[in-house]
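OP here, attaching both records as promised.
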Amino acid sequence: MFPHLCEAWQPQDSVPQETLSQRDEFLIEIYANFVYVRMGSDDPDSSSNPHISPTTYKPFRHSRDHLIRDATSWSTISSMLSQVNVPYHVQPLMIRKIHEAARSIANASVNKDLRTLPMVVSIRVVQEVPGETLPVPEVQAELMSVHASGSGAASWSSIQALEKVKVGGGSEEKCVICLDRIMVGSEAVRMPCLHNYHEECIVNWLQRSNLCPLCRFPMPM
């Protein structure tokens, strides 16, 4: 089975054509490939002859702060990945890699005079498909439909109604959005699915996606 891959870097000798941006931003170019391998096949060579979809390309422009700040980077990057149909369950590692690359590029001394920072992201997503029952193109279309659904913002009233709790117990929790600790004794926001997050993190997230980052529980839209 091929592994999922995500690489992010600043292209060499590449300066964005639009250099008169009024804000510090990233120009992110995402290239995504989807590899489909038949599941349950007795053929030992089945994984060596996968179906590879045409490359999906999509450019994005985002404020530099949105990709660098811990509270907003997760939701911003997840939104981009969802728009190129990357499944939620494989996004966390990719989000961390893209976030780390963005910070490195933004902090590089050679980029100090650039308003627009270019970044290329190359992604490979591997999916097992029931090749005996569905032709691969149908499976690909179905997966794209599923991945694209449920990615709208949660309603503001549902966000405001979220429960605020004081974190107790003998161990600290981790907010999976910013990857920082939720300190014992501090206040957190609890989703209806009982997952806890920093308030700023989950509010930013739900303004882009109505799904819980951990279990995909859907909030009202």
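Record two, same layout:
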Amino acid sequence: MKKIPFILSIFLIPFIGLGQELASGKVVRADSGEPIPFVNIIITSLGKGTVSNEDGEFNFQIPAQATAEMEVVFSHIGFELTQRKVADMGNVSLEIKLIPSEYDLDQAIVLDFSPKVILERVKDSLISTQYGQPHEMEVFYRELIWGNDTIQGMSRARGYLHSEGYQEKHASKANVDGNQYNMLSFDQIQKSDYGIITTMTGGGRSSIGDGLFPKLIFRMWDFNVDWFDYELLGGKKIGDRDVFVLAIKAKNSGVKRKAKKWGFSNYGLLEDAVFYIDQEDYGVHMMELRQRYEEEQEKSKYRRLIYVQKMREAVVKYQRNEAGDYLFTYVNYANHYTDYGYETEENPKVWKVKEYAELYAMDYEFVNLDKDQLREKYKMDVTGEAPNRSLHPHIEWYNGWIFIAGKARYHPEFWVNYNFPSCPNENNLEKQLSKKRPLEAQFASFTNKQFYLFAELRKRHGMKDGYWAPRSFYSSGAEF
């Protein structure tokens, strides 16, 4: 398999194999040489973008349609914008130095209105700031899970995200949350064996793999600004854009009540959040989200799993294109909890668990596929008319992942030539996971029959089939 060491994205997969040059390097602070994580890297003329990883490293293939004079822009919160020509990027490892902006958190901002108004203006501006046309994204997903500080499992997946774009209708009715106008589905996967089997495992997939974070911005219109206390931390620069740094903290139970509704659990992450908001158009450049729990022992209603939730957190990034539209580009998510086993188990092992997942845009295709094209690409039924169409997933649903029908398997030939983003220490993680049997064998044994876990859980607990009966199957209009 081909891995890009220590990166956060390669974004022009359709052109792999056409002989394009490879751009790689590291983004560091000009004053100290320290790496800068999650830097937006965009070829502005093409609207293509990527993000450096947490070590500041990047690696991407220059697209065939890029010309030598096109500019590649490096931008990040708190730093001056830096530019390079495409001609300077190919087949050489670069060190990109970003200069810290003098306009920083130490510079106070005096407002003639309450900081709460900033969030109100964000809500009012979503229709004009979010990209509003149907489009396609190629995405890459990674999942890692640790138990008692030891790696227990890893998954990688390539997929596609369809979005109808942000429309007024999507954000103006109380019964619309934006979900039905987006669909994320995967067609390629590498999944290791998992050393932890509980009904909690895979929470990152529900938040990321089902596309909830890319769609979270669609729900921002439904914020009740009175749920929060506000603190304007100051201002920063993202390239040439002035940005408010606005912290919000939940002051009442409004967020918690909202988060308890089905499909809205990620509202809980707004309990302690920081928004990076454009001072001119009030678009959202980045969100840092965190939810802390009271750490009280709970028991799941149907499966009788005993656990203690501790904390979960996320970072969501958007890129602003030349036209002033904001597009989802990256998210990471971490969930921390303690698993005390099932009520029916004797002497269960206690696991201190950390689940980490990330999803980022690999490529953007700014096209409006018709219904037949969408059906062919996603193998799903499509209803409605653009830009208010809905895609209806088929039955191939695997513990939080939605797969493109017939393709949810491990295909070794795909991964041989697929330059996927890697993460720090991934080689060591692979070695740990391959101690019991080779990773290739683990990948090859993957099945997308989503309820294979129930047989193992029944055996562990000595329970009857009826208790562990699958509850997640539902009918689908898909014919594939």
